[in-house]
Amino acid sequence: MLSRPEVFPTAANWDFIITNRLRGLTAGLYRKYLVSWLLDPSDRCDYHRLAIERMPDYVNAVDREEALDVIYGDVDSSPDAFVALVRRCHLFDADRLNELLDEGYSTLVVDLLDAGRPDYGLDDLAAMRRLSLRLSELPQLGSIENHKGLLSGGMRYICPNGHVNQADVVFCAREDCGLDICGLTAAQRDAVDRFAERIDVLADMLDSGHSDY
After folding, report:
1. CB 3.0-4.6 Å disulfide test: which of 26, 63, 91, 135 passes with 86?
2. Reading across the β-sheet that carries 153-158, which strands appear in turn?
3. Distance CA 200, CA 92 (A)
């Protein structure tokens, strides 16, 4: 039934699937969730709303690794739906975020730094430290260069979107931009800093024998 584009689970289907923790359906159900999310809210029927509402319940009921494999396997169809599901289901996974960073999804990775997971171990801490270091050393997408204007010249900060700023500007002054030289906004930079602080707190907790965070 899930292979048919026009078919969506009913409320009874969702109850049965979740109650019995049926495995192997994550990919099919995730597609239904993404399709439903991408529809304009005014075009969603009850089945679409059910898919958005019940998908997190299913993810929380099945094997975490199966859920991680499927959900992190499609971040392009609807990045907003992906981020929402990761946050709601506590699917933070530093190894997979490092992989997304390899693929160039730096903004998406930063948006998930505040997501959680049920528990943490030393392997998670090592992967988080690696991720934090890489985020602090993102490649420069903008530049500082000598700009020749009609009325004035001199060194200027050219943001990743090509906007020209004074050389000492850190974040692009355009209200619809605000990017630093690596392509992050001030809020995203703050998120990277908070993530580094979170790692320090987690390290202290793991040293004291606690892994819940």
Report:
1. 91
2. 143-148, 153-158, 164-166
3. 17
